[in-house]
Structure formats: C-alpha cells, structure tokens
Design a protein that fits this description.
Length: 274
C-alpha cells in the first residue's frame, strides 16, 4: 500500500508564498497540504512528526532585519516548544532522521542555509557553512531565469529534469560558500542541483541570466541524501502555462515546469519507507 503524502507548509512572520506552495502540493497529489503558522509548532498545537514533507516558502521572514532568514534560523535553533521539554530544532532533526523531505524556496532556502540544513556536509545539520547574500546588481531582482539541472545530483526533487524556466524575486540570492574547501565538497558530491544558465542549457555567470552573481552560478543545492533541497527560484510560481510570461505568444504545455518538483517529492514519499 502506498504511503500517504502529508505536506506541511510553514508560514508566519513575513512569508508570502504559502498559498502557492500548498496549491502545488495539492496539484502534485499530496493527501494533506496543511498551512501551519510557526507559532502552532512553538505552542505544540502541531507537530512535525505528523508530516513527511516540510515546505518552507518564500517571503521576507522577520523583515530580513538581521539579514535574509537569520532571525528565523535563530528561532529554530533556540526556541523551546511549549509544554514539550523539547527545542524546535530537536523536533526538526527528528523529522529529518525519520526520512522526511524538506523543500525551501527563496526565503526558505535562505533559512535552510542559515540553519545549517544545507549543504549539511557529513550530516551536520546545525553548522552554517555557506550563506546567501546581496545580489551583485545591488538591487532586488524580479525576472524569469533558465536553470540547468545536474543529472548527477542525488536530489529526489529533480528527477529527469534538464533545463527549466522559473521566476526569481529576491535581493539576497547570491550563494557563497564559507571556503573553497566547502565549495570543493559541494561540487565533488554533486550537491549543486540547479545552476543559472541560458536558454540552450549552458551555465553562465553573466548578468542578467545569472541574476545575483552566485558562485559557480549556483541556484539550488541539496544535502547528501538528496531529501533536503533549497533553491532561490520559485517553482511554485509556474504550475500552469498561464503563469508563464509569454503564455499568450507561445504554444506551451498545460502543466507548468515547476509542478515537476512537487510531483517528484510526492512520488518519492509514496514509494518510500515512512
């Protein structure tokens, strides 16, 4: 019997893409797609253990007042769960160890990186080893970009993807590893999932195709298991052909390219051991 897909979409304190991510989970076939405020986790009203697919949507978490998602990361690391004698980070680590999937988009990706969930080399999920910082352009970037998928990546979300077209909308999207040694490990282990590219699929560092100047044109990475994945572009913003900026002028498939990310997650969970 196939496993039920129980998706939780975390919201609160500045996120603004939770509805789109919930809709993506619904279209992908998830059995549950609950939008949950982080305060519900902190007060013990909801538990991560009741789910197997955690979605961290985009937005402006805590107003980015300490830098993108840094305040949110500190909350996860240091906030207790009311009445549970447990910290929120402990519940999150149990979720990961139980085999749960995590998808972080834009601000959600920033949160995962600042927490240490990505790249989480050697399974260390609480040590930050990279960051996402201000775009080289010095301004907020709102445009559509081509992404080249790494076929050698262990990422379970990008199975059979090649070149895709998603929108970006961020001011702090430049991926920078802590050191060349960290970058070397990311590349050697094929943890780079998406790179910014041209329409022909070739990777580029040139602006505006690379909208932020990310090192090695990195747009998204995963951890070594492939179950934790974060990216700056928004797959949940391209679920139907009418989301495409040229949908009135091009003959496009009915299904938007972003839905494949969520369908792959649902397929993986249905066939997994949870």
């Amino acid at each position: 019997m196939a496993n039920k897909v129980k998706a939780i979409i975390l919201t609160g304190n500045g996120t603004n893409c939770e509805m789109e991510m919930a809709h993506a989970c619904k279209l992908a076939g998830a059995d549950r797609y609950d939008i949950v405020h982080i305060s519900e986790l902190l007060f013990g009203e909801k538990r991560l253990s009741d789910y197997n697919f955690l979605n961290l949507p985009g937005g402006f978490l805590d107003g980015d007042d300490l830098g993108s998602a840094k305040a949110g990361a500190n909350r996860f690391l240091h906030a207790p769960i009311s009445g549970a004698n447990e910290m929120l980070i402990e519940e999150l680590l149990k979720f990961i160890n139980a085999g749960g999937l995590i998808l972080g988009v834009c601000n959600g990706f920033q949160l995962m990186v600042k927490l240490g969930l990505l790249p989480a080399l050697s399974g260390n999920f609480t040590r930050q080893s990279a960051t996402l910082t201000f775009n080289d352009s010095g301004r907020f970037e709102d445009r559509w970009v081509y992404l080249r998928a790494n076929a050698q990546s262990p990422c379970v979300f990008t199975k059979e993807l090649d070149t895709v077209y998603y929108p970006v909308r961020h001011g702090e999207g430049k991926f920078v590893p802590e050191s060349n040694a960290i970058l070397e490990q990311i590349e050697r282990k094929n943890l780079t999932v998406f790179q910014y590219g041209n329409a022909d699929g070739s990777v580029t560092m040139d602006y505006p195709a690379n909208p932020n100047g990310s090192v090695r044109a990195i747009a998204g990475i995963c951890n070594e298991s492939g179950r934790l994945f974060g990216l700056m572009p928004h797959p949940e913003a391209f679920l139907h052909r009418t989301n495409h900026p040229r949908w009135t002028r091009e003959d496009l498939p009915e299904e938007g390219q972003g839905l494949a990310i969520f369908k792959n997650a649902v397929s993986f969970i249905r066939g997994g051991d949870f």
